[in-house]
Amino acid sequence: MKYPGGIIQKDAPKNVSYDNRGMDLENDINQSNEYYRDKNIAFIYKKPTPIQITKVDYNKRGAVIKEAYFKEPSTTDYNGLYRGKYIDFEAKETLSKTSFPLSNIHKHQILHLKNMYLNGGIAFLIVRFVKLNKTFILLGQDLISFIESNSRKSIPLDYFLEKAYLIEEKYIPRLDYLKVIDELYGGELNGK
Fold this sequence. Notes:
By secondary structure, the protein is α+β, with helices and mostly antiparallel strands. It has one domain (21-189): Trna Endonuclease, Chain: A, domain 1, CATH 3.40.1350.10. The protein has helices spanning 23-38, 107-118, 140-149, 157-163, 177-189, and strands at residues 43-46, 51-59, 62-70, 78-82, 85-94, 99-101, 122-129, 134-139, 154-156, 165-166. It is globular. The chain starts with 22 loop residues before the first helix and ends with a helix. Mean pLDDT is 84; it is low at 7-22.
């Protein structure tokens, strides 16, 4: 495209990398969790993926991992404690404007979320519809209910609009998901 003054706008890059999909959502959650910890509001952490290191080379600067593999499937992305209640959740992004593909979440993660809420924890899925710029909390029980009563391979946006809760995006904390948790579990969290 040519602009006045002879400036030429180059086309967008044709090679798009999907290596860090989900990182924007993860960064927003990590920043929010750091804010919550700094203000002594909640202590929620990103879980490391369990790996087994099998080959290490040593040099002047230290050890360099040359070979490693995943020890076991990890459960969910985040867990911690908020006002005396255990919280456990998975965070996912989708580029779809109409649905969240269930292939984005593993069966062992779904089972883990189910076990957490059945045993008294607060378990949920945070899903960001990137192209819609909307981020939702879908409670674990609503996720399981959908999966058990549908043969669909994706959760439609309409289900999120009906059952899930929109998370307010702000400057600080960036993604105030605990505000939703307060609205849903306020009485329980206050010891009432």
